[in-house]
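Look at one such:
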Amino acid sequence: MGQNSSKPPPSSTQHVFTSESPVSFSPDLINALQASPETDSTRSKDLELHIQRRVHAELERLDAEHSKRLSELQEHISSAPDSTTESIHPDARTPDQSTSVGGPDHKAAAEGDKLRDLSRQSVQKEIDLLKEKLKRRKIKEEVVQDKAVEKAKGEVVNCLRLNDRRPLDCWREVEAFKEEVGRLEKDFLGKIME
């Protein structure tokens, strides 16, 4: 049952086609085809080389276009005024900017300068307000200058030094320190909420 394959074995590797009408080729064509050194593999290699040459030519063309576009963009960027130097030195302008009269570019540049000045002024105002708030708080100085907290802290440290083997005996001093810190926190929150 399984001994025979489902496909018939090929009878030959050549296919012979018969036509109803006689086909005749000239002897010159037959001699040229037989004498030709070109085979299927050489034809495929020639085709491969031809495709590679076309791809290489196309890549060179694209590379030339990109390099041309890059040089145009670099030239455009280098000819444009530098906005970073204007923002650092707003009074230092090139002669053509200060003497140009009108035009859409001049109006756009003037509006950009106004916006830059407004944003600079608003940022400076915010910085000044924050500095004033920080000066009013002086948090660290108040904590250091609070004598009641310093005294309670000193008592806790002294008790822990005396009772280094029994730190739980210093619970009264720790509670007094906690009360002083709580009072200081309430004062601090009262100042912030104002």
About this structure: The chain is about 70% helix and 0% strand.
